[in-house]
Amino acid sequence: MSLVVVGSMAFDAIETPFGKSDKIIGGAGTYIAWCASNFTPVKQISVVGGDFPQTELDALTARNVSLEGVQVKKDEKTFFWSGRYHMDMNTRDTLDTQLNVLANFDPVVPDSYQDCEFLMLGNLLPSVQSSVISQLKTRPKLIVMDTMNFWMEVAMDDLRKTISMVDVLMVNDSEARQLSGDYSLLRAASTIMKMGPKYVIIKKGEHGALLFHGKQVFFAPALPLEEVFDPTGAGDTFAGGFIGHLARTKDISFENMKTGIILGSAMASFCVEKFGTERLRQINKADIDARMNEFVQLVNFDISLV
Amino acid sequence: MSLVVVGSMAFDAIETPFGKSDKIIGGAGTYIAWCASNFTPVKQISVVGGDFPQTELDALTARNVSLEGVQVKKDEKTFFWSGRYHMDMNTRDTLDTQLNVLANFDPVVPDSYQDCEFLMLGNLLPSVQSSVISQLKTRPKLIVMDTMNFWMEVAMDDLRKTISMVDVLMVNDSEARQLSGDYSLLRAASTIMKMGPKYVIIKKGEHGALLFHGKQVFFAPALPLEEVFDPTGAGDTFAGGFIGHLARTKDISFENMKTGIILGSAMASFCVEKFGTERLRQINKADIDARMNEFVQLVNFDISLV
Quick one: DSSP state of residue B163? Predict the structure, then answer.
């Protein structure tokens, strides 16, 4: 029984109003693995070029992230993304995208991954995501999918097909509006649930996240921070915390998903404190526990006082 | 011992993407009074013209809102505001402002208001707000002040002076940033607390509200709604719920303020469901209790599951 993560492993170059990074390690799959491996072993599916540092792969292996499903294409280059964040840190411009090895990525699920019970589909081509689902002989207990507006514009049919195959869809607020054609997030979530997923998570960046299931709604705030240094990977880290918690506890009840959402928010609040995955590499269980307690303080109130 | 509310009573004309109102009853003081009178008697300070309907005044009197401090200027006209909301319902353009009776408003605190224990200063000229404070012979137990960006642009000195006299300052996120010169809301609140108030409440519209006190932070979400019909007065209604709860319970602890914030959010969620004060006039205690329970469901999670 295991958690399988599908997602890009990449180089990023990031500019924010507060600074500029060199070419650093990024990619949705990378963030998810760094985060989820705090809670449970991870079996990774991805592709990198010959230029991807072996030390980075070794660091993941040391955290109990299996790389058997990570293809290394010696003569090709790793996916590269470069972007610049605006002052609000919620919006950004893409400066450069070089697909490289991602252009023809054909994921292969190793036999040792066939025990997959929890499947996290990080943001990637919808056809790559669905290919992984199709290769699994036994359907996982829970399939969680992240995606983005780009696929709504260039691959809507594939996207709809993949969405219909998953249990939990994770999108941000503007993507939920675009996908559903409805401005109200409550109605947007309801529309998306009719497309297949029984659960919808809408990420609102610094404004927190919403979990929908049938008529149930749960809201988790983002931690107010003095400094958001680099939001890159925050959504992926959130996903990693959510699926990592569910995979560790093996409990997919709505109640436990709520805790997963809070844990995802806590992990994302670390992620944004430094460039790239730097902060995620530093934290330990005590840091995570302390931050979870901050979330309890942040939202806890006594209804009996009314 | 009583709650005194200072605020405009007005006519509004509102356009939203979903509809357009006639000239309807509005004003910060009106919304606060309609809301707070669910919880405690209100002593109102305001000014209206001869054109303000007597039936509206009678309706407030029937709810235990004392109008002894409301000046009626028979030969003048009531304050008028007209605005148009954008699609996001968080931003709006002012189409018309006619100050009328507000232009020379000189508030007079009646003797019967001198028992004021809780003072709610609705958004209004800072000099009018401070005049009311100065007229009270005994300082109230708690002074809460709402304001807006307009006064930062035209009356910053008066605004700073008034802010230094109050216990709780209530502003929205962009106003907190403008007043503090800091983009981070955590640092903005800290800067504002150095200006005098021991508590800062930052309203984020559909994204909820934050309460700050020293190093403590509390977050209350807004209820996700199918339809936000008209956001006018939501912030004032929020203030009315907050101060109404504190005045009724006579408890100004941080813990009880948290409950006040949730109650304010619950009341605001009713306000936006119809044009103007219409929805606020319809609700009863059972409606309010039911909505408070929705807030508990919305944010409640079990940390023991981690």
Answer: H
Torsion B29-B33-B35-B40 (CA) sign: positive
Please indicate if any CB of chain A lies within 8 Å of the CB of B191: no
Complex prediction ipTM: 0.87
Mention every residue, 6+ apart, whose C-beta is less than 8 A from residue A58: none
Return the closest-CA partner of residue B147 out of B176, B119, B167.
B176
Q: For B2-305, which CATH class?
A: alpha beta
Say if the Cβ atoms of B245 and A298 lie within 8 Å.
Answer: no
Query: Is residue B182 a contact partner of residue B281, using CB atoms and an 8 Å limit?
Result: no
Hey, where are the domains in chain A? 2-305
Tell me which DSSP letter residue B222 carries: P
pLDDT at residue B286, rounded to an integer: 96
Compute the distance between CA of residue B279 and CA of residue B232 in angstroms, rounded to an integer: 12
Asked which of A289-293, B67-71, B104-108, B296-300 is least confident by mean pLDDT, the reply is: B296-300
Contacts of A22 (CB under 8 A, 6+ apart): A13
pLDDT digits (tens, 9 = 90+) for A215-241: 999 999 999 988 888 999 999 999 999
Q: Touching check for B91 and chain A: CB below 8 Å?
A: no
Yes or no, beta carbons of A303 and B259 under 8 Å apart: yes
Q: Which two tokens stand for residue B143?
A: 């002074």
